[in-house]
Amino acid sequence: MAQIKSRDTTEKPPLGAFVANGRTAGSDSIDGPKKLGTFAGGQVWLDPVLMRSDITMVHVNFQPCARTNWHKHEGGQLLKVTAGSGWYCDQGDKPRKIGVGDIVWCPPGGIHWHGADDGSFMVHEATSFGGLDWYEPVSEEDYAAKK
Ligand code: MN
Fold first, then answer.
1. What is the DSSP string of 3-19?
2. Tell me: the pLDDT tens digits for 28-87?
3. pTM for the full model?
4. CATH-assigned architecture of domain 29-132
């Protein structure tokens, strides 16, 4: 059984931040290829939800064929597909198809890419822990390894 504590109702704890429709109020979508330069194959828009130095949460919208460069996350990353379909690929493995509702845990230090299918856009929620190392773009040959 969990321990139930008595609550101090005079305390003023931090308030929850409300994120409407996946967007933080007042923030514009980020043009991934233009502003970050870490994507290939098409347009990618990023909508920040939570941006802290140790953890970020971003909604990422990939147009068909668009994908991240190869990269790794210092503390890992949790992806949840919320619309469309796409691919996730670990270095040394075959691309694996992902669709709405699928969740992928990318372990700390795992080198991978993720992106849209060639016939569909994909939107995923990306919660990332720690820093990020970016590598070269995913080649057409590597992208074509999906079937
Ligand atoms: Mn990733």
1. PPPPP-TT--PPPPPP-
2. 899 999 999 999 999 999 999 888 899 999 999 999 999 999 999 999 999 999 999 999
3. 0.90
4. Sandwich (2.60)
Query: Residue ranges per domain, the chain?
Result: 29-132
Of 105, 110, 99, 147, the closest CA to residue 132 belongs to 110
Give the separation between CA 90 and CA 98, rounded to whole angstroms: 13
CA angle 70, 76, 78 (to 5 degrees): 95
> How far, in Å, from the CA of 111 to the mean position of ligand 1?
8
How much distance in Å is there from the Cα of 136 to the middle of ligand 1? Answer: 14
Distance 138 CA to ligand 1 centre (A): 13
Cβ 120 vs Cβ 110: under 8 Å? no
Residues 6+ positions from 113 with CB-CB distance below 8 Å: 67, 68, 69, 70, 71, 88, 89, 138, 142
Long-range Cβ pairs for the range 11-19 (8 Å, 24+)? 17/50, 19/49, 19/50
